[in-house]
Amino acid sequence: MKKLILGLLILVASGFSMGTKSSDLGGFSVLTIDPANSNIVWKAEKPTGTHLGTIAIAGGRLNFTCRQLSGGSVNIDMKSINVTDLSAPDKQKLENNLRGDNFFDTEKYPQARLDIVSVDHKSEPSYHFVTVNGNLTMHGVTKRVVFTADITKNVVDQFNAQADIDIDRRDWNVATSNIKYNTLIYKTVHLHVTLQANKPTERISAL
């Protein structure tokens, strides 16, 4: 019996000496969003056709409680709005219009932000689908959004997810001041969001 207890003590001690961290067992952790592997694909429609494009994600962080997504924020670079279904000169013309005050007015509102308020991990039958409640701040307006996210990878040092989010542009006063645009462009804008977050790089301070 004494030998068994001694063996257990040695095993526990060796685990601590190998650098076991509380974050490996659960608790609270933070991953930083990787802009190079994250982006938004948008689609807007009108009676005469569809336009497609991308918007860059500038960064942010995701919070995890016991290895489950629990909060965080995503920063969006609105000046990066890109049109992918047109070629020059129509491409540049539409991009400049989208960045102008008829639409997103990116000089005045250069960034948008999604703040994750809560995550429901029991709302879908498959474990990797979760329901996200958040606040989207864009064009000087903050509105609640609710969407389903598909978590494709969730390990200690990396997180990958994607989501389809439909928003009503009128809730953020986008293209509402121009009668022509507000009438011809459908109210729903479709967003496909891809996110990758990684463990922050540890900084070694000088001695």
Walk me through the structure.
The protein is α+β, with helices and mostly antiparallel strands and 207 residues long. It has one domain: Lipid/polyisoprenoid-binding, YceI-like (Lipocalin, Beta Barrel), CATH 2.40.128. The protein is 17% helix and 50% strand. Strands 1, 2, 3, 4, 5, 6, 7, 8 and 9 form a nine-stranded antiparallel beta sheet that branches. It is elongated, with a radius of gyration of 22 Å.
- What percentage of amino acids are in beta strands? over 45%
Total domains, how many? 1
Q: Output mean pLDDT.
A: 87
Low-confidence stretches: 2-25
The CATH superfamily label reads: Lipid/polyisoprenoid-binding, YceI-like
Distance between the termini: 47 Å
* Backbone CA Rg: 22 Å
The helix/strand class is alpha+beta
Question: Largest sheet, if any?
Answer: 9 strands, antiparallel
Oligomeric state of the chains?
Answer: single chain
Q: How many alpha or pi helices?
A: 4
Share in helix: 10-25%
How many E-type strands?
Answer: 9
Molecular shape: elongated
Q: What's the SSE pattern? A: HHEEEEHEEEEHE
Under the CATH scheme, which class?
Answer: Mainly Beta
CATH 2nd-level architecture: Beta Barrel
CATH topology: Lipocalin
Core attributes:
single chain, 207 residues, alpha+beta, Lipocalin, 9-stranded antiparallel sheet, 4 helices, elongated
